[in-house]
Design goal:
Layout (H helix, E strand, L loop, with lengths): L1 E4 L2 E4 L27 H19 L3 H17 L12 H14 L5 H13 L53 H22 L20 E9 L2 H25 L4 E5 L12 E11 L14 H11 L10 E8 L21 H9 L7 H12 L13 E3 L56 H7 L4 E2 L3 E3 L6 E3 L2 E2 L9 H20 L6 H14 L2 E3 L21
Antiparallel strand pairs: 1-2, 3-5, 3-6, 4-5, 7-12, 8-11, 9-10
Length: 555
């Protein structure tokens, strides 16, 4: 019987012992209590006998209990606390923690938590975890022994109970669920290492697992009934068989497709009938060679599972089961805590820029709309990200462009001065640079305001770094004209922006030919300024090939 008493989950077990009167001081730890009883009673008594034996075998009971409470809470947060779905239950976690307590008898709970993840990250499964040697009495009950029992050899994560008859308490673990738990052990070990180096806090260890962002494909198991009581019975039956669906998928795909059953249920409040749903993440097994584009047809596997589910002895009209394949973007909104899907982290638009080069629909309105949506992002409160954050060095006056070694004496035409803003249709400053709507055109006493205005006429100044004549200062004068065509080619913009920037430098220096003072000025500028960061602009091509400057710009 399962129930909750003051919020504490309790399993009440029944045992029929071979005694006329059950004394109040009956010691069930003695093997004599197991005489002349059936196997069901043995299993009932084993739970209490194992709990008592664990407390006898741990060196410090209080440290054991504190550590166990911590790790059970961690397991629930990370979605690996469920014996029925193929993970570990309360007894399993207690045995693992007790083994670590034996290995570190003088450790405090915080040290035991850290050592727990270290030990079981390195544990070589299926090596069994045992608190004591396996006892073999003459009562005839089977004990876990892979040398004698071929079935015991198939267990993936054996955790052996310390009381007779010794059994594997984690026989429900499959290849897929073992993989998930090992990954979570590695996560916990990594966080604990960072905590020891004061790089993280304990709260980071208990961050919930983002299950619905971890996979691209999922199985959704919808359970429907007429009323809440029927749903409770129907759901319990289906949940107890979900582990079989995991095993069948592993069997039919030869282990190439792995499942991650999530042990939590979700209900759709918009449905009129009683409803809940379970989800299973699907992923290909790492390290297995799979043909490109290979797909897995598990429709027959799902039909077999549904057929077994419908064999429920207490089935009633209205009890229905539906298993469907959903992609990550199709996950229903009711599974998220806030009732809506959390926006995914925005990709840097530089990746989008490179992918668009080979996109056959690059010029289509749909592709342009997609790029504009990516640039603006989902959350309107966040500032738009820059198209490219490139690192360049000051342009040498002898060069008209990073790809040319000659000075161009031709003036910059009006067409060459046209530049477009970022895809969001507006200008922006880097975080902490001040108000975006204010002009950032502050010059030094030796800078030519007329020359700047001639280059940036009709434009809004955002930010660029330039070298001013007379003394070495940084000038924020990035000039971006009003948007006329938000879909202008990026390559043309890059070429035009380079010429505009070079013209600004040439006019600030005051000469188009290298001279004594100017050469010295540029040499000082190269030493003091280093690489110039250009915000919201994209420069392609090669850098100036001279000492201390990059041979190539990062694209």
């Amino acid at each position: 019987m399962k129930f909750k008493f003051h919020g504490i989950s309790i399993d009440l077990l029944y045992a029929s012992v071979s005694l006329l009167v059950v004394p109040s001081d009956l010691d069930i730890s003695q093997e004599a209590v197991l005489y002349d009883i059936d196997e069901a009673t043995v299993r009932s008594l084993t739970g209490c006998r194992v709990a008592d034996q664990i407390l006898r075998l741990v060196p410090n009971i209080e440290s054991f209990r504190t550590t166990l409470r911590c790790l059970k809470h961690w397991a629930r947060r990370r979605g690996v606390y469920s014996n029925v779905t193929g993970f570990l239950g309360g007894v399993n976690w207690a045995l693992l923690v007790a083994r670590v307590c034996q290995l570190y008898p003088n450790a405090v709970p915080s040290m035991l938590v850290s050592r727990f993840f270290r030990v079981f990250t390195q544990w070589r499964w299926p090596t069994p975890v045992m608190l004591c040697a396996i006892e073999e009495e003459e009562l005839g009950f089977p004990v876990w022994d892979p040398r004698k029992n071929p079935r015991d050899r198939t267990h993936h994560m054996p955790i052996i109970t310390p009381a007779y008859p010794c059994m594997n308490s984690s026989y429900n673990v499959s290849t897929s669920t073992l993989r998930v738990m090992i990954e979570q052990f590695q996560f916990g070990n990594k966080i604990c290492q960072e905590i020891e180096m004061n790089k993280a806090s304990w709260s980071a260890l208990f961050e919930p697992f983002n299950f619905f962002e971890a996979y691209k494909n999922y199985l959704q198991v919808d359970i429907i009934a007429e009323d809440d009581e029927d749903l409770r019975l129907w759901k319990g039956w289906v949940e107890s068989r979900l582990r079989q669906l995991t095993l069948k998928i592993e069997r039919d795909t030869y282990g190439k497709l792995q499942c991650h059953p999530y042990p939590y249920e979700y209900a759709d409040p918009s449905r009129q009938c009683a409803h809940c749903a379970f989800f299973m993440g699907l992923s290909r097994k790492e390290g297995v060679k799979i043909q490109e584009g290979q797909q897995f047809d598990i429709r027959g596997t799902v039909d077999e599972f549904r057929h077994e589910i419908n064999m429920y002895m207490f089935w009633k009209p209205g009890m229905e089961l539906a298993v469907s394949h959903v992609r990550r973007k199709e996950i229903p909104a009711y599974v998220f805590p806030e009732g809506y899907k959390r926006p995914r982290p925005q990709r840097h638009l530089n990746h989008q820029h490179h992918s668009d080069k080979n996109d056959p629909g690059n010029g289509s309105p749909d592709s342009q709309l997609k790029r504009k949506h990516d640039s603006t992002g989902i959350d309107d409160t966040e500032p738009c990200r820059s198209v490219k954050r490139a690192s360049i060095s000051p342009v040498h006056p002898k060069t008209s462009s990073p790809r040319s070694g000659n000075v161009s004496d031709e003036p910059i035409s009006n067409n060459q001065q046209k530049v477009t803003s970022n895809a969001s249709g507006g200008s922006q400053d880097s975080p902490g640079s001040g108000n975006q709507d204010q002009t950032k055109c502050s010059s030094s006493s030796h800078a030519s305001e007329k020359s700047l205005d001639s280059v940036a006429s009709g434009s809004k100044c955002v930010k660029i770094e330039a070298v001013c004549s007379g003394d070495v200062t940084s000038k924020h004068v990035d000039c971006i004209s009003p948007v006329k065509d938000s879909t202008a080619p990026t390559v043309a913009v890059s070429t035009t922006l380079k010429r505009v920037a070079e013209k600004v430098v040439l006019e600030l220096v005051g000469s188009e030919s290298i001279g004594g003072n100017n050469a010295e000025l540029l040499q000082i500028a190269e030493t003091d300024m280093g690489n110039v960061l250009v915000e919201n602009l994209h420069f392609g091509g090669n850098g100036v090939p001279q000492s201390g400057l990059p041979e190539e710009l990062e694209v």
